[in-house]
Amino acid sequence: QAFLAQGVSLFFLTCTFQGVAMAQAADAMLTAVSRLGLGLGAAAMIPSLCLFDVDGGQRVVMMNMLSGVEDKVRGEGTHFKVPWLMQPKYYNIRTRPKLIQTTTGTKDLQMVTIHVRMLFKPEETGLPKIHTSLGEDYDERVLPSVANEVMKATIAQYNAEQLLTHREQVSKEIREAIVARASQFSILMDDIAITHLTYGKEFARAIEEKQVAQQDAERQKFIVMRSEQERQATVIRSEGEAEAAKMISQALKEHGSGLIEVRRIDAAKDIAENLSKSPNVMYLPNGQQMLLNMAGGARQQA
Q: What whole-number distance in Å separates Cα of residue 290 and Cα of residue 272?
């Protein structure tokens, strides 16, 4: 019995030692797996922390927490950065539109509302300067003030009427001035155009009245010209009639009254034909001069 008890005790002791060894092995394996997982997780976080992408139409200005804004501008592609030490600032370099509207006075003190559309983009080499002095909203800080100043200064040099007749020249001056001013802030202008030009109600009414007066003047000029043409036509017609009468008188002197008799016969034929077709004429009045006395009316008068 004592031998059996010792065997049972030895068996239990052996099982206990084996369980402890297995637990220690499992713990070591789990520790190794956790360390491997942490290493893989850290390795997976490296690209997101140390790499950044720049898409097409974008540029990056790097902000270094130790030295400040770097002069190098990053283009499209994947670039390296030091986490928490280097911070990328993205800028759009595509051409973008901006509409500026202002109301100002002309040289003759007429109020004009002008709309100017600008296509702009930042200069790549000037992005560090833009980020340092203006910030990411550089267009809102610079373009409205520059455009308003240029437009007011240019419009004040012209009368209200000249803005219509010299619109191309006005647009050219505004474009050149805005391009020159924007270049001082490293902003490039691809195109600048006047889209709308609106006058005040008083000036629009004055233009309408002037157009009406011009139309009336043109109408009166036409009436005068027509009267002159009618006068000339009357003179020419009178001269023609006088010449015809002169020729008839000359013919009568040379050939007698035969021409008058022929004209009388033609007139009598026309009158008789008209009377015969009229349903209202039933008889010929007695004693009336109807030019039907073809036989000797002219001789009796003679």
A: 9
Query: Model's pTM, two decimal places?
Result: 0.56
Check whether 3 has a pLDDT greater than 80.
no
Residue 66, number of CB atoms within 10 A of its CB = 7
Question: Residues near 268 by Cβ (< 8 Å), separated by ≥ 6?
Answer: 291, 292, 294
Say which residues have a Cβ less than 8 Å from residue 114's Cβ, sequence separation at least 6: 101, 102, 103, 104, 151, 155, 194, 196, 197, 198
> Which of 151, 156, 147 shows the shortest CA–CA distance to 109?
156
**Per residue in 204-256, pLDDT tens?**
777 777 777 777 788 888 888 888 888 888 888 888 878 877 777 777 777 66
CB atoms within 10 A of CB 164: 13
* Main-chain phi, psi angles of 296, to 5 degrees: -160, 20
Q: How far apart are CA 61 and CA 91, in angstroms?
A: 8
